[in-house]
Amino acid sequence: MKKTVAIVGRPNVGKSTLFNRLVGERISIVEDTPGVTRDRIFADVSWLNYSFTLIDTGGIETDTDNLIPEMMRKQAQIAIDMADVIMFVVDGKAGLVPQDFEVADLLRKSKKPVIVIVNKVDNSRLPDDYYDFYQLGFDNMYAISSTQGLGLGDMLDEIVALFPKEELLEVEDNSIKVAIIGKPNAGKSSILNALIGEERTIVSPIAGTTRDAIDEKCNINGIDYTFIDTAGIRKKNKIYDNIEKYSVLRAYSAIEKADVVLVVIDATTMVTEQDTKIAGLAHEAGKCVIVVVNKWDLIQKETNTMRDYTSDVRNSLAYMQYAPVEFISAKTGKRLNNIVELINKVYESGRKRLSTGVLNDVIGDAVMLNQPPSDKGKRLKIYYATQTGVLPPTFVIFINDKELFHFSYQRYLENKIRESFGFDGTVIKIIPREKG
Ligand code: GDP
Ligand code: GDP
């Protein structure tokens, strides 16, 4: 299970500098998803054998930005809610200031491991008042320089060492993990209730997690499901709901853990910019996706209404043509049963494995039907393909020259694979590899 690390501290101590330093070029944008502006408040960082999500809470704008103490309190609370380890950054140049104590008091109340990062120590000499920072009451302290890149390795070693240990004998969990995401008021908790009911749920925090997220398990028609972060869905929190980046962040951490993502769109507002952003995260994570247009009972319907709405969704979420779109009402229960069937179906797509023989037959036919492109007298040659993974289905295609394997031809092959084998509701990843 992927861990989360949050950076907190008063303004100007260097939180975002440190974030950028750690994330750096490591953000690999696999595919440019149109309409998805990158929120640089969270990203993945790899260190040794670990990979964790890093959050810069300083980048989360709150509705109280002009009141610094209140802003710091909210940012610290978000860190406490979400993180496995908290990086508490202070300014080694400025020394200890009263605001640092305010942050420290908040963090101490949480039971999360905290490490104090004394930033802006730009050379090997510790500042004279370095040891004052122990007054904050935390044992773990590291001197670093975000701008010079000093001390980061030792600090990262300590962070990963502080990750909570997974329970050794974790029961094998074969349930389908489902995340329900969407903007506030789209109807996520209504859908969750309608799907699994209020009474039937067994609340069971997954072993090894220390954060507030609660996952709920249930069994529908003989199949086990785990709904991710139901606490985040059910808990109504006006303050956080209004912080858009927080909603996006919460969705991101739920998506990470999910196999299938329900992207809930409010039919009365249709696809908004925030929806595009959130749906884009599910796409980029390569998860199985279903677009659920909720509150369909509120829409005045004529002959072509559903068709028009579908094309609106298709246009706004152009990068996920593969995702089924379903129109439901959590209130009346209309077509809700279809959702469960769709979850099963897209999950099956995502886990489908093709034999190399069958796959190469289809690719061979496709190549015959539509000759690969050539450039400056050199033609793309496709030797053979093999499926290397599932969730999402991943195909390595061996070719002569990557330069010649244009996106449009990749798309063509993808479509041929889809025509022959389905793969509804899932991304297909194609990895070209040159064969010498
Ligand atoms: P934030 O408000 O905590 O996110 O702080 P910023 O990352 O915006 O940094 C505030 C200021 O401190 C900027 O001018 C940075 O260039 C500077 N700064 C950040 N890290 C270091 C460092 O390691 N050494 C020095 N000398 N300056 C730093
Ligand atoms: P969440 O913030 O995404 O979890 O949204 P909620 O499930 O709390 O729903 C927000 C509001 O929309 C509530 O007042 C619900 O009663 C209402 N609502 C949810 N689903 C439907 C629906 O299908 N039809 C109608 N008419 N109202 C709905």
Within CATH, the superfamily of the largest domain carries the name P-loop containing nucleotide triphosphate hydrolases
Q: In CATH's first tier, which class of the largest domain applies? A: Alpha Beta
Main beta sheet:
7 strands, mixed
* Number of separate strands: 18
Low-confidence blocks of residues? 25-38, 199-211
What CATH calls the topology of the largest domain is: Rossmann fold
Adjacency order of strands in the biggest sheet: 8-9-10-7-11-12-13
Mean of all residue-level pLDDT scores: 87
Q: Tally the helices: what do you get?
A: 13
Tell me the β content: 15-25%
* Class by alpha and beta content: alpha/beta
Q: What is the approximate shape?
A: globular
Share of residues in helices = 25-40%
If classified by CATH, what would the architecture of the largest domain be?
3-Layer(aba) Sandwich
Number of domains: 3
Cα distance spanning the termini: 38 Å
Bound ligand species: guanosine-5'-diphosphate
Rounded to the nearest angstrom, the radius of gyration is: 24 Å
Function: GTPase that plays an essential role in the late steps of ribosome biogenesis.
Organism: Peptoanaerobacter stomatis
Binding site for GTP 2: 182-189, 229-233, 294-297
Keywords: GTP-binding, Nucleotide-binding, Repeat, Ribosome biogenesis
